[in-house]
Amino acid sequence: MLFLEQSVELNDTELEIYNFITANLQKVVYMRIRDLADETHVSTTTILRFCRKFKCSGFSEFRVKLKLYAEKRRRIAIDMSDETTYIDFLKRTAGEEFQEQLQDAVSILRQSELVLFVGIGSSGVIAEYGALYFSSLFTLALHIEDPLNHPFYHLSDKLSDKICLVALSVDGENEDIIRYIHELKTQKCQVISITNSSKSSIARLSDANIAYYINKEMYQEANITSQLPALYTIECIAREIRSQIDQTID
């Protein structure tokens, strides 16, 4: 809450003070205690009790901490105008390394009869799109929304080696996905991963990995690294497989 990492238990009156402060951060940092009391229709004593709940000896200390908190939030900015990250990635997709990784993934997928997509957070959204895109172009693909509640303990030998898991992860270290990969590999399923680095745990566990290498971006506690490379890679794989199938038919 505000500049504290833990939550604070507030009564109804204190909650109204808190709501006013959060809605008027830039204004409150320049207020006197009497001004804040008048704005929130409470006494200065109530304001002081409120400040002590936030581990401040008085309103002056609270205001200093609040000002530092407001400045920190203001400094966090996202530069949406820098397109070089995307341009560099797209240039690399024409290179030999990316094309080799792409063909490795295509080779595995062409032997698969069922494709499972898995990802967590924003990668989960891309996984859902990937399942839809693959199903539209060449084979049945399913999105595993919650890997922990979709175990594959009892696959038949006839089916297990026809399943391919496509794991999406920016940092490549999600423990739930790593456990899922281990589970499927014991069933002789193939694993393809699309990650930001080929050195990550998920990449190293995979039978084929496509790494896109772009700058990691964080906003406060959230990982907002672009999913454009993962999206582009999924479409490249699916289109390449469709092209190869069409050539075979012709």
TrEMBL record:
GO terms for biological process: carbohydrate derivative metabolic process. Residues 1-73 form the HTH rpiR-type domain. Keywords: DNA-binding, Transcription, Transcription regulation. CDD domains: SIS_RpiR. PROSITE patterns: HTH_RPIR, SIS. Residues 105-244 form the SIS domain. It comes from the Bacteria. One of its GO terms (molecular function) is DNA-binding transcription factor activity. This is Putative transcriptional regulator. It comes from Listeria aquatica FSL S10-1188.
